[in-house]
Amino acid sequence: MQTFAYQRPASLADAARAAAGAEAKLIAGGQSLLGAMKLGLAAPDTLIDLHSIPDLQAIKVEPGKVTVGAMCTHATVAAHKELAAAIPALAFLAGNIGDRQVRNVGTIGGSLANNDPAACYPAAVLGLGATVHTNTRSIAADDFFKGLYETALQDGEIITAVSFPVPEKAGWQKFKQPASRFSLVGVFVSKGSAGVRVAVTGAGAGVFRVKALEDKLAASWSAAACAGVEVSADGLNTDLHGSAEYRASLIPVLAGRAVAAS
């Protein structure tokens, strides 16, 4: 691994100033960044550790809304009783990310900033119509995810929290790759004040919504409504784990299971 400087700012303002460096990288859990550095895919001259900023570590449950600090680990989200009571599907998703080590180190902010095409959290954020808050602005989920490892974040912008509207119903199911536990295909469904949303991860270059399933579920919130819905394989991933057509066929099946579990 290459040589780099290390900073651990105590405030968000200090972190933002440090992140202004052209080759600086923010580190949250480090589950993706450190691996990329070991492989030579990332070579920052400075790492800015966000662990000492208490404002990024809180979970707040209010009527109709749950706000999760960017530095909350997956294990923290999964174990939070008030969050689990408000949005059970979100706690379930967090509790099934990776393995125990990943869940106790990885963070929601790090996952969203990295935007791995097979990550679980992007499906929850898009599937619930959440809002990503940064040190400079708030970004709607539909505007946040831009493509393969690409988001709307600008250089030096820091995710501070994510606010989730509490839905009437929500469910999550994933068909996981057994070694990595990433989603070969994962589907998050929700029904709330903004209507029905269906978000898919693992199948394409990034998380996306499926309007055909949303329309069917808006008419009838039932597993049966997902049966027979055809999802195009165009643009979906083909690899040694499954073809694009296989992934396309999994989407309505998992959507139905998510609805049944909601």
UniProtKB/TrEMBL annotation:
Q: Where is the FAD-binding PCMH-type domain?
A: 1-169
Under InterPro entries, the record lists: CO_DH_flav_C (IPR005107), CO_DH_flav_C_dom_sf (IPR036683), Diverse_Substr_Oxidored (IPR051312), FAD-bd_PCMH (IPR016166), FAD-bd_PCMH-like_sf (IPR036318), FAD-bd_PCMH_sub1 (IPR016167), FAD-bd_PCMH_sub2 (IPR016169), Mopterin_DH_FAD-bd (IPR002346)
Coiled-coil ranges (or none): none
The answer to whether the entry has keyword Flavoprotein is yes
- UniProt keyword Flavoprotein present: yes
Question: Where is the chain membrane-spanning?
Answer: none
Going by the UniProt record, its keywords in alphabetical order are: FAD, Flavoprotein, Oxidoreductase
Which GO molecular function annotations are given, in alphabetical order? Answer: FAD binding; oxidoreductase activity
Protein name as annotated: Carbon-monoxide dehydrogenase medium subunit
Q: Which organism is it from?
A: Roseateles toxinivorans
